[in-house]
């Protein structure tokens, strides 16, 4: 009985495969559409896709095209081909702005780019694209049931960009120790503070900027030391204003004390000369 069952199953599978190949190579567009639809509903997306690719151009402009284009885009999505799903859902939005499925298409287009976003250390072009798409979706569909999830995705992507930017600034600070120029590090921290006002790394950026400004001052030629020490002092005051109760305060206070000592020495030297 077991062998009989296996033979029967094999026969059915071969018959099904043979029928699929027959429809795939036929000229009957209606049969192709019907089989593609059936395979899609069964979750057999790879087979469905081959048929969709043949019938989509034929049905363009016809009443069936709207549903077909959505299924076509979603097939790529289900197959995790996010480049093509993002592109096809974008086309669907443009072609059928009044469709009942346009909101879902907009979300899945944005979600496709989210899935393409690489780890933070790599180029973030797709991350910026995903953020743009997700924010557009949130703005256009403020009452969507997907709004909360979309906001969570936005927060995750922004966190990725923040991590990349703070590591770039920290790397510039490390490089400055070898080349002696701390200005690129200061600029990187300034940009981070301006670009990421709510970041969890903001404290590190304020402290890193203080460190860089202090090192720039103490390593400067005599004519620039006082001016740069005063700038570093301003950065200390801004750090303390926001982060006076953090674990970095003790080290920031040590830097501030040294700044005050150096400024005092400079004032004494100036008084003696006069």
From TrEMBL:
Residues 32-179 form the Outer membrane lipoprotein BamD-like domain. It comes from the Bacteria. Residues 147-174 form a coiled coil. This is Outer membrane protein assembly factor BamD. Keywords: Cell outer membrane, Coiled coil, Membrane, Signal. Signal peptide: none annotated. The keyword Coiled coil applies. InterPro entries: BamD, BamD-like, TPR-like_helical_dom_sf.
